[in-house]
Each structure stands twice: as structure tokens, then as C-alpha cells.
Amino acid sequence: MARHKKRFNDMPPDKLRAAQNQNVHATSLSPAAGYAAIMKVRFTARGVRVRIDDLELAALQRGEALTVRVTWEGGGWSLILDPQADGVIGSGAQLAAGLRQRLPELLDPAQEGVTLQGPVRVDVEKDFGPQHLDLQETAPS
Questions:
Q1: Is the distance from CB of 103 to CB of 71 less than 8 angstroms?
Q2: Three-class SS string for 107-131?
Q3: The organism sits in which domain of life (predicted)?
Q4: CB of 60 within 8 A of CB of 106?
């Protein structure tokens, strides 16, 4: 049996193991846009990987923070992507990733995403479906 590093947190080890390396598909709501979208979050050995769609990227561009929450009996977890803040701040079960300085890079169509360094690494990646492919580039000549 593989040995696990001792983790210092307030979550029981059995629940922590169940949550590790699992995708969290929780609804995030952009009140100004009036839509609910899915921000995909994955815990990895290196940190947190977040995949956003085109509507979520547009909300960030408008200055709207995106929040995803997962709750369970006795606890919960949340992630905030904030386009008006800088840095990565973790406090208890909340992780806030400020995108202000990196937002222009994230908005660049040539970039797939950005990496934010902090107490935990946060990779924010664009996850656009095939409807975003340039038809001129994919059409046979």
C-alpha cells in the first residue's frame, strides 16, 4: 500500500482522499449575465486546474467574479476567480485567484490559459468547444 504524506487540514482523511483528483462540476452563476454555467475544477498534485468556457471568460472580461461552491455536511469548499484582484489567497476552505494582471493574456485568443502562483498553483484554462474553431482554417482547400 502506498504511503500518503500527512496533510494538515481540518478535513477528515477519508473525505479528503475521496475529493482528491476528482473533477468538481458545480454551477457558477453570473448574476449580470443571468446564466448558469459549469466551471470545471480539478485538484491535482501540483495545485488546482480550472477550465472556463467562453461565457465565463466574457463575464471575467466584464469585470464579474466567478464563484464555484461545493458544500457537504460540516463543511464545504469554494473557488473565486476575480478579475479585479491580484494574487492567489487561500483561507480555510476558500481559494481566491485574482486575475487582474493576467486577464489580458487570458483574453488573448492565441493563449490557452494562464498559471497563477501562490500558496497553491492555479491553472486557468480556456475550454472552448468546437464551435470556436475558425471555419476558414478547417475547411478543405
A1: no
A2: HCCCCCEEEECCCCEEEEEECCCHH
A3: Bacteria
A4: yes
Tens of pLDDT along 33-91? 444 557 899 989 889 999 999 999 999 999 999 999 999 999 999 999 999 999 999 99
Note the pTM of the prediction, 2 decimals.
0.68
Please check whether residue 117 lies inside any domain of the structure. yes
Task: State the total domains in the chain.
Answer: 1
Contact 37, 30 (CB under 8 A): yes
Distance CA 102, CA 108 (A): 10
Q: What is the pLDDT of residue 135?
A: 46
Exposed / middle / buried, residue 121 (Cβ in 10 Å: 0-12, 13-18, 19+)? middle
| Residue 131 resides in a domain | no
Among 84, 98, 95, 86, smallest CA distance to 119 is for: 95
User: Cα(40)–Cα(124) distance, rounded to whole angstroms?
Assistant: 10
